[in-house]
């Protein structure tokens, strides 16, 4: 990763959509922005994160003292972030009753709570942590609205949850948008466009911006086509790895399969819908993975696991090794 700015204390980077900020659980989740940066800058340390599907600006600290000072800037809300998003519908119409300031900003106040049984999904709930976001419309069409966003607080998935809570989920959002809205974009339409803060060592004002070409009108932006794997390619790969048979499975919506085992090893790739897979992490601790199209998972012979399918069910290719 090549920084868009660097000095002896800081690195400012532009993260692409689809790349993790930090490593996740499992060998397939180790590639991330942090590890790519640390391969070139071994002293670089994480200060904050962007969701995997969010693109845009992210800052890393060079050394413990820089990390401590940058973290303090975030804690005291001296770091100012602006995002761009394309959301479904016309929030200017649905939110007419919500007062706007002289610059057109409206506020969403909604406490955010992790939905434990459906993690990593978060919801607006009275028991959640106090959360505030500001938004203003930049452009509207019959189907969507381009909005500028400012997170006042910094909760997980905050902007996505807040926009969904007022009835305007983001296009391409695999977690919070219904299937028709998700299908309008090949990626989550959320981008961290600007970042401003006082330098943690000199107090000099620092400001960075990476604008988008997004629009409220279809196709909403220009996207790099991501190569997709075919069933035949998955099959040949699995057979080369010693699996005996490969087939396609489809599960109905909201099916729950309690903990069970298979008398064969499994390798699978999700192609539609979503599911939660509960199994053991590599270190033996329990984990619950949320899987969407393009994600793969493996299970050993007789490995205990449980499955919960989402509101659209799920389809996946599965290879078995007897």
UniProtKB/TrEMBL annotation:
It comes from the Bacteria. GO terms for biological process: enzyme-directed rRNA pseudouridine synthesis. GO terms for molecular function: catalytic activity, acting on RNA; pseudouridine synthase activity; RNA binding. This is Pseudouridine synthase RsuA/RluA-like domain-containing protein. InterPro entries: PsdUridine_synth_cat_dom_sf (IPR020103), PsdUridine_synth_RluA-like_CS (IPR006224), PsdUridine_synth_RsuA/RluA (IPR006145), RluA_PseudoU_synthase (IPR050188), RmlC_Cupin_sf (IPR011051). It comes from Limnohabitans parvus II-B4. Residues 9-165 form the Pseudouridine synthase RsuA/RluA-like domain. CDD domains: PseudoU_synth_RluA_like.
